[in-house]
Each structure stands twice: as structure tokens, then as C-alpha cells.
Amino acid sequence: MVRRILNAEKKTPESLGKYVYCVIPYLKERESFGNLGFNAEEVYTLDYRDLAPVVSDVAYRDYAVDEQEVEVHRKVVEQVMKEHSVIPVAYGMAFKSKKLLQIAMSAGYQAMQKAEQVVDCKVELGIKVFLPKDQENMSSTTRGEISSNFLQCLKAVSADFKNLKLFSDRLVMNSAFLVDKKSIDNFSDQVGLLKEKYNSLMVQYSGPWPAYNFVDIHILGGKRRGFR
Questions:
Q1: CA distance linking residue 157 with residue 182, whole number of Å
Q2: pLDDT per position as a tens digit, 214-227
Q3: Domain of 159?
Q4: Which listed site, 63, 82, 146, 170, has its alpha carbon 20 to 30 Å from 195?
């Protein structure tokens, strides 16, 4: 069952649950990222074999989406990814105890090892391409040519890509790209050239983000009972 954190009276660390923001490679020592977590609690690493879940101590209750808490989760992950390759996990991964977190880490360990190889030294960058309002009736052939040209240019400077849902009639392209951190400038240059070439289109360029679209963010969710 999915759970959430709760403002509650102070407890000893041993009695508090663990909220997981992401997972990083374990560097053989505990690392603290400061008091960035829920209720301004310390965000720090635990160790599990060669991986380290990034956690804070939390009280524990049934989980529900809260915009402020989602923003805390996002900011913590973005801070961690400044220094580390990050395996992102879904918002809401709270566990009653360190032991139950370790059980979940054990169950997802092989999948996380594969995910670590995917995200190593890489980030996600997003590209959306919109038609002007007066060109909404552009033919599917022309739309396809525009999308193919963007993809051809950007695939050359990225490790992988995913086409995402076209949620608007004006949207020609909605894609996520997995890009090596050393190649971000090259990727940005290509985006700039494409903007110049298609100057009548609106191009939204976002990121860098954790690689949410390239790994299973529910990797710690567990389909079996008893993880939380």
C-alpha cells in the first residue's frame, strides 16, 4: 500500500520511517545533503550493497499527492543530481523502517543495477515543438517531416530518446532525450540551430532532469505485500 509522510511529534530516529527520494551509487561513506527534506529534516544516504538510497526520516501514514511535498521531492532530487548520477523513484516511496526499505532494495536490486548503467553520467532533456495557431491544419506528412528532422539532429548528440504523448493538436513533437552530461552543450547548440531553421514554430526546451522516462520510477514500489 502506498504511504505518505505526516507532521507528527518528534520520535527517535529508530522509530521513524524512511522516505526515499532517489538512489545513487554508494561511495563507501554516509553523505548528507543538508536539511532539505520534509519538515526540514536532513537528507542523507543509507547503504545497500553498491547502491545508496537517498532518504530523510519521516513519520508515516497513508499517502496522498500534495503539491508542496511533490515540490520538496523534486528539489531534493535536483540537488542530488548536481553531484551524482541519479536513479529517480516515484514520489511517495515511504517505508516504516530501514529494514523494510532494505527488503525493497533487495527485491529491486537487479533492476536498479541495470538502471544505474542507463543513467550513469546522464540527464534527461525535453523537447516540445508546437505549430502556430494559424497552422493547426498542417498535413500529417509535413508534421512527420518536421518531427523526423528534429529527431535526426538530436539523436546524433544523445544516448537514447523516447517519444511521449502528443497532448495537443498543435504539438508536432514531444520527446525526452537521454544525454551525457558532457554533451549537454552540443545538444543545446543543435536545439538552437533547429530553432533558427524552424523559426515559425515554438520550441520548448527543458531540463536537465533526472531520467524519469528511461527507468522504472516505481522500482521500489513492489507488487508484493509487506514492503511498507
A1: 10
A2: 999 998 876 433 33
A3: 122-209
A4: 82
